[in-house]
Amino acid sequence: QVQLVESGGGLVQPGGSLRLSCTASGVSGNLYAMNWFRQAPGKQREFVATISSGGTTIYRDSVKGRFTISRDNAKKTLYLQMNSLKPEDTAVYYCNVKEATVGQLGEYWGQGTQVTVSS
Prior knowledge:
With 119 residues, the chain is mostly beta strands. Helices cover 0% and strands 59% of the residues. The radius of gyration is 14 Å and the shape is elongated.
């Protein structure tokens, strides 16, 4: 069973930066996709960015050019560098991974970390 521990959230002023981390444990297969989602108060959870095991990345339009997703496969850690933060980026950010083992696919979520962008 994969477990995910997130860190790096906090309060930042508009225009500031934060770096989120998500470390996976209990991994026995291939983490073929590692993702970040977010959920703002009163809204549905939404996709933010994804990175494949080969390093291919995709971003939602509103964060392109400001956020960078990356992964360290040796450390089984996912990152999200967030620059030029805006108040509308305020949300709980969730790490999500998809694991492939022999004959089985699994999907796991972190507990979430709060990001608040406010002056």
